[in-house]
Amino acid sequence: MKHLYSPQPVETISLEVEWSPVWEVILGIAGYTYRQIRHTFDLDDKWKSHEDSMSASLVKHLKVIEETNFWYGLIMLQNKLSASSIQDFSNCLSELSMDCFYDTLLPYKDRDTEPIRKATAHLHEQGELLKYAACFESHEYLGGYVRAVSHYSHHDICDLFIRTLNEWYEWINQREEWEKWTQALAFEQKQYSLLNVKNPMEEIERITGGVKYLPEPSVWNVKLIPHVSYRPWILEKRTPDTKIFFYPLKEEYLIEPGIPSTELIRGHKVLGDELRLKLLYQLVKGPLSLQEMSGQFHISKSTLHHQLSLLRAAKFIRVDKGIYSANLTRVNAFSEKLTQYLGADI
């Protein structure tokens, strides 16, 4: 059988590194209101030490964000608007049509439910929103998030978002580190202004420090957002046509010579606990589920989850579909980081 081949241009994904102060403000709000794992964030101690300087209004608004998971909506809107400042965000938000507003807020699930999502965004009625929320009943927070969207008016959501962004910015901008962060993040974006679009998967892994992205149907755009406020975590989100990876800025941009990195400090703190060392020991021997470890160590799942989250934050372990395993590459490389910090001649 003969094959008639007529060459056509090969399409690939669009890849860009994007940053603005708005992203850093939103990720700070997202991290601060993520109570379950906030203790693993690099900035948690700083947030705690400066909480007393928060205005009563900001505390109130952050509580609402925490209860509703509206940080997700902030991320989706900034992805849509790519605002360069909070004022720009506010201006662009006021110009969005109601259909576009709800189309942006409502999370994408899959191709089968996409027509339902589109129709719900168009109607944006409470009953329809509650029906769409049922599509996410098994999700950790998206079902509750969509239900919360149904209970708030368009005006109230926009007002909450703008007030929270402005008040968080006013609060965090008082920290002496803010200017250093913004300069480092702007530099990160600038150095990746020209990317190798012929090998986008390799570029994603190189820039993010290890994210292995597999192409997905309908995703034509990938955004890489560097951050400080959500360190040490990589946050992953998607829209119908865009994948977004929020990756931690390299710590070398943030510390002075002779100052130990947060990564080094966190790693030694994590390994300085008997239970966590025992957990890591067992996971080096082989993958285990939370149920298996709970039975093996005779401790509650909630206690285990807390200890495992610390090991995950230090990148000593991974979890995939509820199964935990040791990150042997990270374990083996950790001692080298101590040697590098102390000096090559020791």
Automatic annotation (TrEMBL):
GO molecular function: DNA binding
Classification via InterPro entries: ArsR-like_HTH, HTH_ArsR_DNA-bd_dom, WH-like_DNA-bd_sf, WH_DNA-bd_sf
Domain HTH arsR-type: 256-346
Record key words, sorted: DNA-binding
Taxonomy, superkingdom: Bacteria
Record keyword Mitochondrion present: no
Protein name per UniProt: DNA-binding transcriptional ArsR family regulator
